[in-house]
Recover the amino acids of this structure.
């Protein structure tokens, strides 16, 4: 078991190891970085220097934080995590970790976790993406929620884009959140239908509470 610093900067989560920051991104299938091999909780990983044209330098520009790479599902899926953003720590283990709270069962698509989110009494399948600074709800009712302003975001292979956002009340596993939700553009939004999902739950969920993320057991504990 290893405990490392966890940083929430400019709406993104970063794990710090060996003095370097890595974007903690459950929504990315593959990891990459300018620092390889990476040793994490006693496990060593050899990483490519880019993914879909995205490098550590371009990632740093997009997130406005200097970082050496991104940790995606291929690496994150090897561990149990307890992420405690309020106290700035992440606990990592190759063994099973325990965490008290309400349990949410995870589905997955290409290694990316999927949760069931309730909005206005209806359950929707949504990706859980800690690399997303806001959430996304691909539904024509989005405009009926209170406006929350325009946001610039990015996605590997697509680059930067802008979206209008709304404040949406969402329930996960019995826990209520008000999340800032936008709409994904064009083909990027259409790709959600491949996994029969209606959106993305971003890292706002992780910003003010301690959460257990156990991808090997397909569990999220709030």
């Amino acid at each position: 078991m290893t405990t490392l610093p966890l940083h929430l900067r400019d709406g993104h989560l970063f794990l710090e190891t060996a003095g370097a920051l890595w974007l903690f991104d459950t929504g990315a299938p593959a990891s990459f970085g300018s620092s390889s091999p990476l040793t994490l909780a006693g496990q060593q990983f050899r990483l490519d220097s880019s993914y879909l044209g995205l490098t550590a330098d371009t990632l740093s520009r997009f997130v406005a934080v200097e970082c050496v790479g991104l940790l995606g599902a291929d690496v994150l899926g090897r561990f149990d995590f307890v992420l405690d953003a309020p106290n700035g720590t992440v606990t990592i283990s190759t063994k099973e970790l325990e965490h008290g709270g309400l349990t949410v069962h995870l589905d997955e698509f290409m290694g990316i976790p999927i949760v069931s989110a309730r909005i206005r009494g209806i359950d929707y399948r949504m990706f859980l993406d800690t690399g997303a600074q806001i959430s996304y709800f691909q539904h024509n009712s989005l405009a009926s929620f209170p406006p929350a302003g325009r946001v610039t975001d990015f996605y590997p292979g697509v680059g930067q884009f802008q979206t209008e956002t709304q404040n949406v009340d969402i329930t996960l596993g019995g826990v209520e959140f008000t999340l800032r939700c936008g709409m994904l553009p064009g083909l990027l939004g259409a790709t959600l239908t491949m996994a029969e999902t209606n959106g993305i739950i971003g890292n706002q969920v992780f910003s003010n509470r301690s959460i257990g993320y156990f991808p090997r057991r397909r569990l999220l504990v709030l």
Q: What stands out?
A: The radius of gyration is 16 Å. The chain has two domains: 2-93, 103-209. The first helix runs from residue 56 to 63.
